[in-house]
Amino acid sequence: MAERKATRQDAVTQIVADWARERPELDTSPLEVLARLHRSFLRYNTKLNASIERHGLSVAGFDVLTALRRSGTPFRLTAGQLADSGLVSSAGVTLRMDRLEKDGLIVRERDAVDRRVVYSRLTDAGLAKVDEVFAEHLDNENRMLAGLSPSERRQLARLLGKLEHSIVDSGPDGES
After folding, report:
1. Residues near 10 by Cβ (< 8 Å), separated by ≥ 6?
2. Secondary structure letter of residue 174 according to DSSP
3. Rounded-to-integer distance, Cα 33 and Cα 88, Å
4. Is 5 exposed, middle or buried (0-12, 13-18, 19+ CB in 10 A)?
5. What are residue 56's phi and psi, to 5 degrees?
6. What residues have CB less than 8 Å from 131, skipping those under 6 apart?
7. Is the pLDDT score of 174 beyond 80?
8. pLDDT band at 91 (very low <50, low <70, confident <90, very high)
9. Which of 84, 86, 99 is nearest to 129 (CA)?
10. Where do runs of H (alpha helix) occur along 57-123?
11. Phi, psi of 152 (to 5 degrees)
């Protein structure tokens, strides 16, 4: 019954059926994957933002804090290293660091050898904050994945990795 209800309420199923009726010559099967992925991302993003913002952080600031935390002791990176971490774009690093510094979560320090190099380092308050928020973040993500078994999670993770490679390998952005 629950499976039938989920299918009946699935907007993508209706969209695919509508296109099959209106343009039966088109292969709309990509929508069954990518539209669902997009809709899932939008819902995930809403829950992620709400969870992080409850702690007075933006998702972008949280990304900086987690990158610093993952770097290990002494929990410091340059702006370039933060940008290279994969989750933080170089364009917004300085603005994010300004806000985090103002909030007392990071400090900026010059390199002792090369004064041109500036590191951002977690403060004790920043370390405590990221540890607290990241633990809650994982709890939130586990709740969102509760409908999947551990085996299904592993399978989905593998397939999503394969999907990402397929998208990257599909050619330059904007071209088909």
Report:
1. none
2. T
3. 27
4. exposed
5. 75, 20
6. 69
7. no
8. low
9. 99
10. 59-70, 79-84, 93-102
11. -65, -35
Q: pLDDT of 107-130, one tens digit each? A: 999 988 998 898 999 999 999 999
The per-residue DSSP string of 117-164 comes to -EEEEE-HHHHHHHHHHHHHHHHHHHHHTTTS-HHHHHHHHHHHHHHH
Task: Name every residue whose Cβ is closer than 8 Å to that of residue 127 and which is 6 or more positions away in sequence.
Answer: 69, 75
| Cα–Cα distance for residue pair 134/47, rounded to 1 Å | 14
Lookup: tokens for 126? 């920043």
Which residues lie across from 77 on neighbouring strands? 120
How remote is the C-alpha of 94 from its chain's centroid? 20
Cα separation of 53 and 50, whole Å? 5
Query: 56 is written with which tokens?
Result: 């007075």
